[in-house]
Fold this sequence. Notes:
alpha/beta; 12% strand
Amino acid sequence: MASIMEQREAGTQPYKGDEEKWEAVTRRDRDADGAFFYSVKTTGVYCRPSCASRLANRENVRFHPSCDDAEQAGFRPCKRCRPNETALAQRHAATVTEACRIIEASDEAPGLDALAEAAGVSRFHFHRLFKSVTGVTPKAYADAHRARRVRDQIAQGTNISEAIYEAGYQSSSRFYETSNDRLGMTPTAFRSGGAGAAIRFAVGESSLGAILVAATEKGVCAILLGDDPNTLVQDLQDRFPKAQIIGGDQEFEATIAQVIGLIESPTHGLDLPLDIRGTAFQQQVWQALREIAPGSIASYADIAARIGRPKAVRAVAQACAANALAVAIPCHRVVRADGALSGYRWGVERKRALLDREAGA
Length: 361
């Protein structure tokens, strides 16, 4: 069955009948908030579907398309879920969105106290609220935003020192201390398309076709699948056009053997360090994917909910598509809400083969 979000995007009206609406009320479905309201004859109040109040008896419940309809029928708004006001989740999202705008507009990262004061809540509550909505702390968001500003400025040709200071770093040394984590390499190497960075790689053959494994000093940075080895090598070179791409030695052959072993026997796991590069959101999604056990699947909506971003289903799908570490970050375990296999960067047939293999392991 398609998710509520997918139904809305497709122009299909969810919760068509009273029984569907009642099921949404019994599971306190937040996705149903705003789609309809329900009233309780014995209490004289009307609520959102997600209201945490004690569940009423079905025979006492009526459904309404709007607050006005419920009030015209003689019901008053529930004081607990306040259906006639902006939903709490929306208020929280608006608060955090405003905080993000403050962070992005500031020359220097604002402190937690200043952000909490602007939001009108305590320091502790703001920190918890920000993380629950974005999945990261205010400091991590600010760090990621500043790093992105540096990347954009360097890519546009700005002097590296100027880019660092314009992004809000008080000293270049503070940025250089974490530049490998922020850029995946030094700023100079980043600007020159990976010049000076050493990336070892090897191409092998698995039951799913050709496989390329590449690694930096930090760990495996790419696992690519395909039909043509030359295409995989070109993909790697396109990512780092000026990096020093080195054919793997005999020791590196053991690395690719481990990766191929993971494909053939997914329950064994992969005991190799990974060099995972992506935005804070992407890394959050990828971490959630790594927590899906072999033989299990999850929908894009499930992953969005796990990271505390239930409305970010489409962004989760985009993060899955951006994954460059096939199998190690198991985006093949994510399916559509109706269980159908959606697009997979390395081909739906490979996705089906991986899932079948894991199911039978």
